[in-house]
Amino acid sequence: MAQTCGNIVVHIIFSTKGRVPLITPEIRTDLLAYLGGIIRELRGTALIINGTGDHVHVLARIRPIHSPAEIARVIKTNSSRLASANQMLHPSPDTSQTKKHIIGNVRSRKSS
Asked: Does position 16 have pLDDT exceeding 90, yes or no?
């Protein structure tokens, strides 16, 4: 029987909207663990997840049936929902809004 093997590793960088440092030490651990859980749900492997107050790096091995764009979309959608639902974010200093989406821009790079 024929078998196809694939080793797709993606490096995805998410930044907060406007690169405002919204990822505080209080929420950082929970957020990074949540991102790893999202990747596991997609049957991928989170190799490294880390970041600073205004961006997060995700290095993950994904299955060939998922595109890097799909992985980025799912992570972005779910992490923004988590942040909004738990009101994890502080108000932005330049606006009067009380909530911001934690994920603003996405860049991904695919290597095989």
From this structure: no
Q: What is the pTM of this model?
A: 0.71
| Contact (Cβ atoms closer than 8 angstroms) between residue 69 and residue 47 | no
> What's the rounded Cα separation, in Å, for the pair 87 and 71?
24
Q: Which fold has domain 8-111?
A: Alpha-Beta Plaits (3.30.70)
Our CA dihedral for 49, 57, 11, 40, rounded to 10 degrees, sits at: 30
**Would you state the pLDDT for residue 12?**
95
Q: Specify the length of the chain in residues.
A: 112
Separation between Cα atoms, residue 32 and residue 50, nearest integer Å: 7
Q: In this structure, are residues 17 and 93 in contact, taking their beta carbons and an 8 Å threshold? A: no
